[in-house]
TrEMBL record:
Keywords: DNA-binding, Transcription, Transcription regulation. Signal peptide: none annotated. Residues 29-48 bind DNA. This is TetR/AcrR family transcriptional regulator. Residues 6-66 form the HTH tetR-type domain. PROSITE patterns: HTH_TETR_1, HTH_TETR_2.
Length: 196
C-alpha cells in the first residue's frame, strides 16, 4: 500500500506555477522546482512526473481556473460590457507596470513553446477557444443590453477582443509604459465595441 503524501499538493503546485511563470519553462531548472516546492527530486517527480508533465498540469489548471473565473464574472456582472472591458484592461491596470511585465502564464508559454511543444500549442488553442466562447456570450449579452452595436458579429468581435488583450500582454511583458498601455486598452475598446 503506497504511503500517503506528506505535503500539501495545492501549495506545491502553486509554488511551482509561480516559478514557471516568473522564469519561463526553459528558464526554470530542476533546482528551481525543488527549491520552490520544498520537495526532493524523488518526491516531486514521483508525485507529478517529469518537468514537462508537471508544467503541463500546472498550465492546464491555470487555464481552467481562469476559465471558471471569467464565466463566474460574466454570470454575476450587472452588465456584460463591464466584463469585456475588465478582461482587456485587467492586465494593464497596475500603475507600477509590475503585473504587465509578469504577463500571463498561458500567453508567455504560448510564445515560448508553441512551435516546439505540440501539447502547449494544443492547450493554448483549447484555452483560447474557451475564452472566445465566453467573450462571445458577453458580446451577445452586451448587444441585448444596448451597450454594443447590434451589427457586430459577436464571435468575430470576441476574437478581436482576445487578440487585442494578448497584444497588450505582449507589450506589457516587454516593459511598455503603463500609462501608454492603459491608453491603448481604452482605444482598443472604443474601436472594437462601438455602442451603435
Amino acid at each position: 500500500m503506497p504511503r500517503p503524501r506528506q505535503f500539501d499538493e495545492e501549495r506545491v503546485l502553486s509554488a511551482v506555477r509561480a516559478a514557471f511563470w516568473d522564469n519561463g519553462y526553459a528558464g526554470t531548472s530542476l533546482e528551481d522546482l525543488l527549491k520552490a516546492s520544498g520537495l526532493g527530486k524523488g518526491s516531486l517527480y514521483g508525485a507529478f512526473g517529469d518537468k514537462k508533465s508537471l508544467f503541463l498540469r500546472v498550465l492546464r489548471e491555470y487555464d481552467e481556473a481562469n476559465d471558471r473565473m471569467l464565466r463566474a464574472w460574466l454570470e454575476r456582472a450587472e452588465r456584460a460590457i463591464e466584463v469585456i472591458r475588465g478582461f482587456v484592461t485587467g492586465p494593464v491596470r497596475d500603475p507600477s507596470g509590475q503585473q504587465a511585465r509578469r504577463g500571463c502564464l498561458l500567453a508567455n508559454t504560448a510564445m515560448e513553446l508553441s512551435v516546439s511543444v505540440a501539447e502547449v500549442a494544443a492547450e493554448a488553442r483549447r484555452s483560447y477557444a474557451s475564452t472566445t466562447a465566453v467573450l462571445t456570450d458577453a458580446v451577445r449579452r452586451a448587444q441585448r443590453e444596448g451597450d454594443v452595436a447590434p451589427r457586430l458579429d459577436p464571435e468575430v468581435t470576441a476574437r478581436a477582443v482576445l487578440a487585442g488583450q494578448l497584444g497588450l500582454i505582449v507589450l506589457g511583458r516587454v516593459g511598455q509604459d503603463p500609462a501608454a498601455l492603459s491608453a491603448m486598452a481604452e482605444a482598443l475598446l472604443d474601436g472594437l465595441l462601438p455602442p451603435f
